[in-house]
C-alpha cells in the first residue's frame, strides 16, 4: 500500500515519542519498581512525580543541576536525611549523587523509608569523588586583557572603569592591571609644539590649567591604556606595545575629550569650539610626545 509521505512522517514521529516516554519510565534492568510501602533495598526503584533539580546539600539553594531527575523516571534512593523545609517536608533523598526533595519521590510514606541509610553516616554508599583541575589563583592573562580593552576603549563616563576596578583591583608581586593615573599631566613644552594656533587672548598656561580639569576622566583612561598596553614599565602587563595600539589609544582619548566638550557646552555656546581646540592641543601633545611613555 502506498502511504503518503506526510502520513509516514507523522506515524514515525508518534512512534519515536512513544518510545522516548517508555525509555524515560523504564527502571534499570536490575531494579525493582516499588509500587507499595516496603523496606528499602539498594536495588529498589522509586517513581519521580515532578521534574526536580539536584542540590549538593539538602536545601533549596544553590542548584547544582537543573532537571536532575524528571517526572515519570524511576530512580534508586542512595540515602535520606533531614534538611531545609521544602514543599511541606524537611526530608530529602539523595539519588545520582545529588539531593532532591522527598516530597516528589513516591516512597509510600511521609517519613524515612524503613531500613534506608542516613546520608552522611558510615552506612551511606560512597560515590567516588571526580578529579578536578586546580582552581587558578587569579584571573588569566586573557581575562585581564579583555578587561583592559573594555576600560581603555569605552566612552568617557562609562561604567567599565569602576566595574572592572572592583573586579580586578590588582595583586601585589604579579603582573596585573595598573589602575594608577596622574590626571592630565602634559608637559607645557609639548603643548607648545602643537600645530593648532590659539586665540591671542588664550595662553598655553591658561589652557592647560583649565582643561586639565575638564578632561581629567579622559586623561585617566588614556593613562590606563598606556600603562597596560605599553612597555614603559616592565612590571606591567605590556599587552600590545605597538604603534597601532598607541594610535588607537590616542584616537579614543581625542574622541572622549570632544564628547566631554559636547556634554559641557551646548552647540550654541562658543566655548564648545574653544574646548574642541583644547582637545586638539592635548591630542597633538600625546601624538607628538607620548612615545617615551608608551614604548
Task: Explain how this protein is built.
This protein has 295 residues and is α+β, with helices and mostly antiparallel strands. The protein folds into 2 domains: 91 residues, SH3 type barrels; 154 residues, Phospholipase A2. Helices cover 40% and strands 13% of the residues. It contains 9 helices and 9 strands. Strand 6 and strand 7 form a beta hairpin. Helix 2 runs antiparallel to helix 6 and helix 7 runs antiparallel to helix 8. The longest helix is centred in the C-terminal third of the chain and has 22 residues. It is elongated, with a radius of gyration of 34 Å.
How does the helix and strand content classify structurally? alpha+beta
Q: Mean pLDDT score, rounded? A: 82
**Helical residue percent band:** 25-40%
Provide the gyration radius in Å.
Answer: 34 Å
Shape: elongated
The biggest sheet, with number of strands, parallel, antiparallel or mixed sense and barrel status, is: 4 strands, mixed
Number of continuous helical runs: 9
CATH top level of the largest domain is: Mainly Alpha
Count every beta strand, where a strand is a DSSP E run of 2 or more residues: 9
**Domains counted in the coordinates: how many?**
2
Determine the CATH topology of the largest domain: Phospholipase A2
- CATH-scheme architecture of the largest domain: Up-down Bundle
Portion in strands: 5-15%
**CATH homologous superfamily title of the largest domain:** Phospholipase A2 domain
Return the string of H and E elements.
HEEEEEEEEEHHHHHHHH
User: Alpha-carbon distance between the termini?
Assistant: 81 Å
Please mark out the parts with pLDDT under 50 across 5 or more consecutive residues, or reply none. 1-26
Amino acid at each position: 500500500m502506498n502511504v503518503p509521505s506526510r502520513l509516514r512522517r507523522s506515524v514515525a514521529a508518534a512512534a519515536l515519542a512513544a518510545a522516548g516516554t517508555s525509555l524515560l519510565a523504564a527502571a534499570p534492568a536490575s531494579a525493582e519498581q516499588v509500587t507499595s510501602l516496603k523496606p528499602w533495598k539498594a536495588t529498589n526503584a522509586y517513581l519521580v512525580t515532578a521534574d526536580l533539580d539536584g542540590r549538593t546539600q539538602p536545601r533549596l539553594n544553590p542548584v547544582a543541576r537543573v532537571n536532575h531527575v524528571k517526572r515519570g523516571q524511576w530512580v534508586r534512593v542512595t540515602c535520606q536525611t533531614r534538611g531545609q523545609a521544602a514543599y511541606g517536608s524537611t526530608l530529602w533523598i539523595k539519588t545520582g549523587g545529588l539531593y532532591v526533595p522527598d516530597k516528589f519521590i513516591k516512597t509510600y510514606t511521609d517519613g524515612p523509608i524503613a531500613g534506608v541509610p542516613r546520608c552522611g553516616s558510615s552506612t551511606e554508599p560512597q560515590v567516588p569523588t571526580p578529579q578536578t583541575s586546580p582552581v587558578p589563583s587569579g584571573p588569566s592573562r586573557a581575562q585581564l586583557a579583555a578587561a583592559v580593552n573594555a576600560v581603555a576603549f569605552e566612552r568617557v563616563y562609562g561604567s567599565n572603569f569602576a566595574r572592572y576596578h572592583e573586579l580586578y583591583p590588582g595583586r601585589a608581586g604579579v603582573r596585573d592591571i595598573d589602575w594608577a593615573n596622574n590626571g592630565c599631566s602634559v608637559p607645557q613644552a609639548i603643548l607648545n609644539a602643537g600645530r593648532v594656533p590659539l586665540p591671542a587672548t588664550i595662553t598655553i598656561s591658561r589652557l592647560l590649567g583649565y582643561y586639565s580639569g575638564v578632561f581629567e576622566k579622559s586623561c585617566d583612561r588614556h593613562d590606563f591604556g598606556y600603562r597596560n598596553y605599553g612597555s614603559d614599565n616592565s612590571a606591567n602587563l605590556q599587552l600590545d606595545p605597538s604603534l597601532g595600539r598607541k594610535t588607537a589609544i590616542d584616537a579614543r582619548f581625542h574622541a572622549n575629550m570632544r564628547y566631554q566638550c559636547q556634554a559641557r557646552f551646548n552647540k550654541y555656546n562658543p566655548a564648545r569650539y574653544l574646548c574642541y581646540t583644547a582637545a586638539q592641543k592635548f591630542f597633538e601633545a600625546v601624538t607628538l610626545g607620548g612615545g617615551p611613555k608608551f614604548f
